[in-house]
Amino acid sequence: MDTTMTCARCGSVGLEEGFIDDGAYGRVAWFQGERKVGMFGTPKRSGPQRPVLAYQCPQCSHLELFTGPSDWLDEH
Fold this sequence. Notes:
The chain has one helix at 72-75, and strands at residues 2-6, 13-18, 29-31, 49-56, 63-67. By secondary structure, the chain is mainly beta. The chain is elongated.
């Protein structure tokens, strides 16, 4: 629990860290630039990327999403 983060919805302090699983690779990433689709309808993953970090408010269940440092993907 991050005791310094405040919920943008209800103002409670102490968001719980978690993650969003894409069902295949175990992590979700943000990619810079316009979304482009490949031949089979899947997105092309090119360019700079950052992991998506998720925090949930234990009071109202609001979910806050942030991007983390790019080297986090290599470490986890």
